[in-house]
Amino acid sequence: MSQTLTKNQVDKLGNTLVFLSNSVSEFNKTKILKLLFLLEESSIKKYGHPFFGFDFQLWKYGPVLKDVYIDLSEDEPQLLKDYIKKDIDGYKPLVEFCDDEFSDNDIDLMNKIIDFARHKTAKDLVRYTHDTNSLWRKSAIAHGILEELESENINSTEKTIDFTLLFEDDDYRKSRFESSLENIHFINHLKSR
User: Fold this and answer.
1) Do the bridges between strand 84-87 and strand 90-93 make them parallel or antiparallel, or are there none, so unpaired?
2) For the chain, what are the domain ranges?
3) Which of 139, 122, 120 is nearest to 41 (CA)?
4) Which of 25, 40, 104, 135 has the fewest CB atoms within 10 Å, measured from its CB?
5) pLDDT tens track for 54-79
């Protein structure tokens, strides 16, 4: 993520994790990172706009929100401390879900991701996000780093997932997505002032 997160972004991220944690088994760091990516990718595919508007980096084990990865690697989360806590089995919610930042479409999308991933392991989701036609793979190829990631010569990169690859043959939807992303970045910039 290239910018400081606004309070609204942290609230949406935290409440998303609260929502997901109530319905998904094995709610650990890797699974959280994959679920957040699947929400972003699914929202862009279905609605043409991001769920969060964050940059997901290309890492060996898939798309990663670097700040969330760092936060979940601590003894206790700091960025998300008002929403989740580390438990022996993963992460547990600290609060009730608040839907203030969510549209009906957002809730519907989270429920679809839950249905898809409810009983999948983190390894299942890593395999899914690395599939032959996955956006992770297409982005790694576009950046010229697939071989290095797969051979484990590098574990992480600053390169980001290119969501415009979802619209390779649809310039209209690609343009709508890019405009939506610009709007999100502009609004977040205003809120961070």
Assistant:
1) antiparallel
2) 7-191
3) 139
4) 104
5) 999 999 988 999 999 999 999 999 99
